[in-house]
Amino acid sequence: MKSFCMFIDDDGDIEPKITDVAWLPGNQFNVTVQSPKYVYCEPICGAPIAIGHFTFKSDDGQSERFSKYARFVKGLNDDNFDCCASTYKGQNPYSMIVGFDEKNKPSFGSNVTVALSIYYNCYLQKGQLKCRSCDAKYYSTMTW
Predict the structure, then answer these.
(1) Bond from prior residue into 48 cis (ω within 30 degrees of 0)
(2) CA separation (Å) from 20 to 23, 76, 96, 109, 127?
(3) For 15-43, what is each residue's pLDDT tens digit?
(4) Is residue 144 part of a domain?
(5) Is residue 50 part of a domain?
(6) What's the structural domain count of the chain?
(7) What share of the chain in percent tops pLDDT 90?
(8) Pick from 23, 117, 26, 25: nearest CA to 65
(9) Which CATH number is 130's domain given?
(10) What residue numbers bound the domain in which 92 lies?
């Protein structure tokens, strides 16, 4: 059960990654992600900001896509994601429960890869939202 992400740690901060996946009854799972708290020694408020490209795929052929593009998490939005404009911090690590379609449920004991992109250190540049991001994968076994 590991998470892999390309990350250059230049200031002793935490790696953006999926730290846990827990399978729950009712076709749900809890996924926990973390993201860096600093970039170039400056604090990042609200990180992680968004999750995107979120999928799971099992070795028994089951899969589901939850989002293709980045979506704000933790109640963040266009008005409160910016560290300079808000004091909102939220949780880091951040956990969320995700439901999936019954027909896509992996069989008990199957190996499942959960993949997503973690977005952090976001800012507006010429009216367009820019973020650092990291693609992460977590390998789990279906237990429900």
Answers:
(1) yes
(2) 10, 22, 11, 17, 35
(3) 889 999 999 999 999 999 998 877 666 66
(4) no
(5) yes
(6) 1
(7) 48
(8) 117
(9) 2.60.40
(10) 3-139
